[in-house]
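seq/struct pair 1
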Amino acid sequence: MTRPRHFQLRRDTDVSGVSGTGHVADGVVFSDGHAAVHWLGRWPTTTPHPEGLVSVEGVHGHGGATRIVFLDEQAESRAHPTVQGRCPACGGGGLFLGAGGYVTCPHIGCPAPDAASTMLLLQPGHRPAEHCGHQPSEVFTWRHPGQYGECVLRPGRQGSHADQHGARWWATTEQPTTEG
C-alpha cells in the first residue's frame, strides 16, 4: 500500500469569483485512491472525492485554471525511485518502485497497479507457473520447433494464453484479426 500524497490546489485565475488566486486549498490522495480537499479562506470546508484526482480535476479544475501541485513529489521520488516503461494494465507511465520492491503504477484509475510486478514474478525461475491446461496451437509449434509450450494463465481465465517463455497464442475462436 502506498502512503498518502499531499497536494495544494493553486489557481492562476479565479473563475468562480469566490476562492481567489494562489494557494486556495490543501488536499490529500489516500492510499486507496480516494481524495479530500480542504478549502482555505473565510469559510473553510472539507470535501471528499471518492473518485480521487479525476473528481478533483473535474469539479475544481476550471479548464486548467486550477493546478494540482504535489508537495511531497521530491520526497516521494527519493523514497520510491521511478521505473522506466509503461503499466501493462492501463498503459500509463510514471511507474515507481514501491514498498517491498514492487513495481507499481501511480494512476488512480489503473485496474491492476501491481501488473508490472506480477509480470516480473511470472518470469521463468521465479516461481512455479500456474496454468490453465491449454496447449499451444500448431502455429506455435511450427514457429517454435522443439520448444514445449504451456499456458501460464490461471484456470478459468478468458482471452489470450502465454507459455512459460512469454510467447503468446490464442485459441482459434479468439484469434485477433489484423486490419489494414
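seq/struct pair 2
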Amino acid sequence: GGGGGGGGVPSAAAPAAVADLAAQEPENDVDRFEWYRGRAEQGDADAQYNLGTCYDEGRGVEKNDEQAFLWFSRAAEQGDADAQFSLGVCFHEGKGVEKDDAKAIELWTKAANQNNEDAQFILGWKDAGANEGET
C-alpha cells in the first residue's frame, strides 16, 4: 500500500490564518481528516484523538492501525481520556502494536479515573445503565 505525502503548506505560514480557516469543523470526511491533521500536528490532543479515530475507522483516509495507534498515543500522553481508552483497545486487540493486556488495563484505569464511561464499564466499575456507584 504506501500513500504519497500530501503537499502541505509550510508550518511557517501564519498560524493565525490557519486558526481562522479551522474555526469550523468540515462536514466532509476527507476535509475533516485534513482539518484534524493540521491541528493534531500542532499538538491539539482532541484533534490527535480524532485523527487516530479517522485512521482506526478509515474515515477520510485509508484505514491504518499503526497510524491510529500513533495518534492515540500522542493524545493519551497529554491526558486525553478518550484516547487513553482507545489506546487501551489497541493494546488489548494488538492493533498497530503488540498485544499487551496489562498495558490496556493501565490505560483504561487512567481513562476511568477521568470518568470515561467506556473504560469504567470495561473494567467492571459500573454496570451498563447503572448510575449509582459505590465510592
